[in-house]
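Something for you to look into today, if you have time. Could you write out one complete protein record for me, on any chain you like? Leave the record below and I will have a look.
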Amino acid sequence: MVKMSLDAVQVASAQLKELKVAPPSNGDSSRESWEERQELNNQDCSNSKPKSVAGRRARKVEGAMFFPRPEHAVTIAVSTRVLFRTEKEEKIFEQQGIEEYLRYQIEHENEPFAPGPAFPFVKALETVNARLRELYPQSEELFDIVLVTYNHAHVGVRFINTINHHNLFIERFCMTGGGSPIGYLKAWQTNLYLSADADKVREALAEGIAAATMFLPEKQTEVSESQLRVAFDGDAVLFSDESERIFKAHGLDKFFEHERDNEDTLLDHGPLKGFLEALGKLQKKFYAKGHRLDCPIRTFLVTARSAASSGIRALKTLRAWGLEIDEALFLAGAPKGPMLEKIRPHIYFDDQMFHIEGAAEMGTIAAHVPYGIAQHHNSRKKPAAGT
């Protein structure tokens, strides 16, 4: 089994957790600064690499840049610990305490962090946004990325410098100074929350927010720079864990019988159904402009279900929901890792650590959705056939 850098990516202390910034004011007093920012965003910066990290604010953009309102955007909240590599700083905090940690961050605030496991995913979101702005210059239906961290606001300067260094377009921050970000996630109308803190991910799921814990594999495969690729498990991710419960309680034969008897009964929704819906909504904007075949968003269902014996119910459920999945792989219990290696998704969601580890072995960035009956079983034993 491949060794994943769990300790390096996951949050070790509530004091240090990830930051979040309050949304900008929409009052009249902010109008001048808003217009100045719009003008700055419209400048043509021919060199995308900054000469210095500190102080650089202008970016190269196509057309006017604006910030979508949460009710229109697909909001992705990403913790600093999965967007960037912060292992060294985390070790300082654990070994020397909060004051030394803050001092170190301030002294090194002009040194950008290296990319973390969520970085390729965020870059792909920005690629999709660029295409959407070309087709719909005035639309607010875009991905909106919010950086979330438990850090003190003093550390924000280094995060801003890092974002500018990597030429990311992230303007919304949430720095909670050790407090829980969940209330802010609800205020942002968050469609997906990615964190290294499994407890906070569970808290978000309990509040009805799609969320997953990200892991960093020892190796990482190259992913597309022109197309966002997102892969989902079925049961307990897109769908409820109803069928998995049948398997756990009564075995594989009863599971197949249950699926045959209920093939015309829709599965209930799982925690990430809403995120797939949001992706589908953006995909349809490309289809409407004649870009179905070269759509920059592609979705995958990668399930251990068998196609003939239990796959029809899953497909009928997706169709009834009005959701199109671009590719569906029914593996009938075969390992998912080799298939994911061929797909090369920017992120893969699964409810079982067995599959997360299998994905990591092949260099796939995977995110654990701690939901459903599988969380009560040994995650490193072979999983159920329905997951």
